[in-house]
Amino acid sequence: MSLRKYISKRNFRSTPEPSGKKEQSTGSLEFVVQRHKATRLHYDFRLEIEGVLKSWAVPKGPSMNPSDKRLAMMVEDHPFSYRTFKGVIPEGNYGAGIVEIWDHGVYLPLNHDYEPIGEKELLKDLKTGSIKFLLKGKKLKGLFALARMKSAEGNAWLLIKHDDEYAVHKDYNSEDFTPASSPINKALKKQKQASK
Ligand code: MN
To answer: How many helices (H) and strands (E) does the chain have?
Structure first.
């Protein structure tokens, strides 16, 4: 687990993002979903494992509908303190744009029989390309899986909701769950007005 890649991509004198330091939660493991308006609007899904946030960029955002398989591109590990980061990444920096927190909470790592496991076992499953976990967020709740795509270059995964009492069976668009007053939505509105 290393933050070397995270650190090498950033200049902490010009971005407000947290500098890389390994820390961890004191209680349950945490997760966060950030909505990020960079070159393209996307979501970043992050799970705390052994002192860092394992991270995936999810172009279409997560879904609560089990029939959706959302592409999730694994990116560099982020520091644990990134879970509370929101704000503006200035022009010229990596990922320049706006970051806001879409959902956060704690999670429980599970084995393939849906039994609770520890971080070490989850990390082992992660290396084999298939993990299961239970999310306790405000928007994302219940059982989920992340599975690496075999055909792809190795960093393409699928984020899938499992069918449970929290599953949604109609169309799910994470964009519908963002307040109009959010910094990104305000910026998008401004952009739209400017282009008229
Ligand atoms: Mn991002």
So the answer is: 3, 9
pLDDT of residue 1: 66
Q: What is the mean pLDDT of residues 16-26?
A: 83
* Number of neighbours of residue 167 by Cβ within 10 angstroms: 17
By the CB criterion, residues less than 5 angstroms from ion ligand 1 are 36, 44
Q: Which two tokens stand for residue 142?
A: 């219940």
> Ligand 1 centroid to 114 CA: how many Å?
29
Average pLDDT value over all residues in the chain: 95
Residues 6+ apart with CB under 8 A from 150: 129
pLDDT grade, residue 152 (50/70/90)? Answer: low
Instruction: Please tell me the distance between residue 32's alpha carbon and the centre of ligand 1 in angstroms.
Output: 12
Contacts of 106 (CB under 8 A, 6+ apart): 27, 28, 29, 30, 31, 136
- 22: DSSP letter: -
SS (H, E, C) 139-160: CCEEEEEEEECCCCCCCEEEEE
Confidence category of residue 55, pLDDT binned at 50, 70, 90? very high
Helix ranges (H only) for the chain are 4-8, 119-128, 183-194
